[in-house]
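Hello everyone,

My group is preparing for a crystallization screen and wants a predicted model to guide construct design. The compound we'll soak is pyridoxal-5'-phosphate. Before spending weeks at the bench, it would help to have a computed complex in hand. I've included the protein sequence and the ligand's SMILES below. Output in structure-token form would be ideal because that's what our pipeline reads.
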Amino acid sequence: MSQLEPEDPLRRFRDEFVLEGGGPIYLAGNSLGRLPRRAQALMVDVVERQWGERLVRGWGEGWLELSQRISAKIALLIGADADEVAVCDSTSVNLFKLAMAAVTAQAPRREILTDARNFPSDAYVLAGVGPLRVVDDPAREAGAGTALVSLTSTCFRTAENYPIGEMTEAVHAAGAWMLWDLSHSVGAMPIDMHASGAELAVGCTYKYCNGGPGAPAFLYVRRDLQERLRSPLQGWFGHASPFGFSPHYQPGAGVMRFLAGTPPVLSMACVEPGVDLLLEAGMARVREKSIRLGELLVAEADHQLAGFGVALASPKDAQLRGSHVALRHPEAWQLTQSLVADYAVIPDFRAPDLIRFGLAPLYNSFDDVRDAMARLRMVFESKSYERYSTQRSAVT
Ligand SMILES: Cc1ncc(COP(=O)(O)O)c(C=O)c1O
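Reply:
Good plan to model first. Here are the tokens for the complex, ready for your pipeline.
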């Protein structure tokens, strides 16, 4: 720990993750979180013993209850009750299921509103559900024909936090329902779905929850609506009696009716250790450190990068920011490549001109932030980024 390292009550959690000694500074936890050691050990057990030895008996030995058990833990992260959350499918698929259910329940209202800052895939999915209007301020523009407003609670580009409660209230005043995508907020800050009053939410587990690449997502359905809503994907796992093999679909009780098919046991199991770590750390402490890391990054960027044409793309006020900081520069793509290849710092790039630095309080240190900004300064000073092509790769 450097002398400048402020007191860090979460310091011990860094050792809970697989960190290559002397390896790169990892600041992309807003895209894909690190591997918890407990998940590594669990995977060995799930593959070798549970699958390898127990085989189909595994369903009776915990696999069937996995979703419910992990859902109850995610509920604690988002201020919901255990029976309002289901871990299943991907964020995109969950968004489709909930948006479709909402629009059907809200008929004759049909219109869906979102804004241009939403994650583009969310807009693609919503446009496949009903007539979608992309507007500047959906909460204000919701009207008599609006069935649903769907937004991402922390912007994937700039990390701007939306005032969840205030916006939900405005949407409700127009008679519309609110669906929040919590992907960039869950595991990064406390969330209170009950206090927000929102009907619906979805979110992913592979970012700040450290669930692993492509880990199953979750959905939230406010309890009072569950019996009214129907999933458009009427699969057997959402059936009242999946193993009754009835020829007719009958929705199961509560939120579990939004399950569709067989859960992906390997990747589902992997979600739990990361969520456990967040619960052990406590979301208030996670948020407090996230804010301190963000403030340090902004201050270091100001100080180290002055004169290089870098602008802060995220809100300056830490309270208005999620857990990444985006810096804007016309050569962001080349800068990112040089940071990764020449200076062992891994942030990520978002077109056309943003470098996002994800701050994951469980494993990122204050030194990570300080060193990353010092190395970015070296990229500028050495002009190492000029050697890189402006041609972008398929995955950024
Ligand atoms: C805000 C947001 N919503 C949705 C998605 C897409 O989720 P998935 O590809 O897991 O369906 C992402 C992916 O990063 C995201 O950031």
